[in-house]
């Protein structure tokens, strides 16, 4: 049985480590991909847990919101991995809003939690985030800006789910004579 406080602490620590590696700034976007089924020890899509989704999303918001970093929550393949975001974020970034409301078996528990805790939630099909965490191997790479760099958080599992993370960096161009800023 997964313990709420332990999971919240692990999520908080993981997000803080990714932020330290990614050097995000106010206005950047952080994407979450998560299967609560695997967090609770089940198989992806077979044991969705709305309470666990709520714990994860609210823990992330507690870290990101004060920094002015936008949270995008990726849904499952049944909604084409669309992301729940705040309407203001979608509009400011020019992301096309699509018409779907996440549910337990089409979007998942974390997407549902985002809809509960965001001020004015919408779904967008494509985003460009600067970093993110993938809890349960849900494939967030399509939503992280090119060039993607793996981040290795100290928490390699949250509950029963494998954890990976990505950050992005600008492309290196110019060849042998070019000089690059430290990022």
Q: What class would the helix/strand composition place it in?
A: alpha+beta
- The structural domain count equals 1
Please give the share of residues in helix: 25-40%
N- and C-termini, Cα separation: 41 Å
Tell me about this structure:
- With 183 residues, the protein is an alpha+beta fold.
- The protein has one domain: 3-Layer(aba) Sandwich (Rossmann fold), CATH 3.40.50.
- Helices cover 30% and strands 22% of the residues.
- The chain has helices at residues 4-22, 36-39, 50-64, 87-93, 109-117, and strands at 29-34, 70-74, 83-86, 97-98, 121-124, 131-135, 148-151, 157-158, 161-168.
- Strands 1, 2, 3, 4, 5, 6, 7, 8 and 9 form a nine-stranded mixed sheet that branches.
- The mean pLDDT is 95.
- Belongs to the UPF0340 family.
- This is UPF0340 protein FC07_GL002252.
- It comes from Loigolactobacillus bifermentans DSM 20003.
Give the topology.
Elements: H1 4-22, E1 29-34, H2 36-39, H3 50-64, E2 70-74, E3 83-86, H4 87-93, E4 97-98, H5 109-117, E5 121-124, E6 131-135, E7 148-151, E8 157-158, E9 161-168
Parallel strand pairs: 1-2, 1-6
Antiparallel strand pairs: 2-3, 3-5, 4-5, 6-9, 7-9, 8-9
């Amino acid at each position: 049985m997964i313990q709420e406080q332990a999971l919240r602490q692990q999520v908080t620590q993981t997000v803080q480590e990714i932020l330290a590696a990614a050097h995000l700034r106010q206005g950047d976007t952080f994407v979450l991909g998560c299967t609560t089924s695997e967090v609770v020890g089940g198989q992806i899509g077979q044991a969705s847990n709305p309470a666990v989704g709520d714990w994860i999303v609210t823990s992330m918001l507690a870290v990101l919101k004060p920094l002015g970093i936008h949270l995008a929550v990726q849904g499952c393949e049944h909604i084409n991995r669309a992301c729940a975001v705040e309407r203001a974020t979608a509009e400011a970034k020019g992301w096309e809003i699509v018409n779907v409301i996440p549910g337990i078996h089409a979007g998942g528990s974390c997407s549902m939690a985002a809809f509960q805790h965001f001020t004015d939630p919408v779904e967008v099909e494509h985003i460009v985030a600067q970093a993110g965490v993938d809890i349960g191997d849900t494939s967030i790479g399509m939503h992280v800006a090119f060039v993607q760099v793996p981040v290795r958080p100290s928490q390699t599992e949250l509950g029963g789910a494998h954890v990976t993370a990505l950050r992005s960096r600008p492309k290196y161009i110019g060849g042998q004579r070019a000089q690059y800023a430290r990022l």
